[in-house]
Amino acid sequence: MLKLYLCLLVFSISCYADNIVTVNSSENDFDISLRVNQSTGYGWYLADYNSQLITPIKTEIVSINNKQIGSPKTMLWRFKVNSSVLRVPQITKLNFVELRPWVGKIVNAIEYKIILAGNTK
Prior knowledge:
By secondary structure, this protein is mostly beta strands. It has one helix spanning 2-16, and strands at 20-24, 29-36, 43-48, 54-63, 73-81, 90-99, 106-118.
């Protein structure tokens, strides 16, 4: 049982390490990029976030050097950090889900850990 727990712990840490964004006190905006293929009907949706700490600004689809129909693209999400929360270091999360809106079945989910470094002076 202990071996299984340790394997799960290592797996979750290694998957989570790629989804960390650090925002310093000198920055107010940050971006998250997610791969998307619009021709399939699937898209990424912001499922959960702390609205007291972070505000979504915009999202846009960016081509990846390929204009062929059906080629994957990048969905760029821009967020703004409430400047008053940068007074002290904090950690929050952003959760995204991938689905076809007319079906509603989630096929993928990603969680980002956002480290708000705060003003350490």
